[in-house]
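Entry:
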Amino acid sequence: MGFFKEGFTEKIVLSVVLLIVVAGIFIYTAKDNPAKLSLKTEGNTVSAPADNSGISSLEKNLEEKISTSLESIKGVGKTKVLVTYTSGLRKEFAKNESTSKKSSKETDKDGGTRETVEDTITTNIVISGNTNPLIVVEQRPQVDGVLIIAQGASDPKIKEQIFEAVKTLLNIPPAKVSVAPMGGV
């Protein structure tokens, strides 16, 4: 009986340690391999989650454009701009749809009839080239907020000009724009 306990506990401990090591390997490799492009069908629209680099490049591009534009206004000086979006890019892909309809009528030996109607809709995303889906519409995300830090923003007139320029440029409500003076060291 003592031999059974010693061998049994060693096997359990070894199994638990081995299980923990295998789980750690799975968790580590799952972090290194991001999920591939996943497509979801919602009615007639197919959405794909945008990768972070696509949103980051959109944000940086818009930030640079706003910053360059504001710096050309007299009295604004150096600026830093931060833009955030409400969501990612929305893409609509080209699709091939086919519909088939089958109906059958059966009569059993007792004289009863049964009618069966089967509708089948098949949707396939059109692929251009080897692996890329064909994009029909690409919709940019909406701006969630803009922060502008400018040297000249300590002057109320310059601050108002910056505020109005950004609000007009992006066509967003005033509550989504914040202008602050740049602090110096």
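The CA atoms of residues 97 and 123 lie 4 Å apart.
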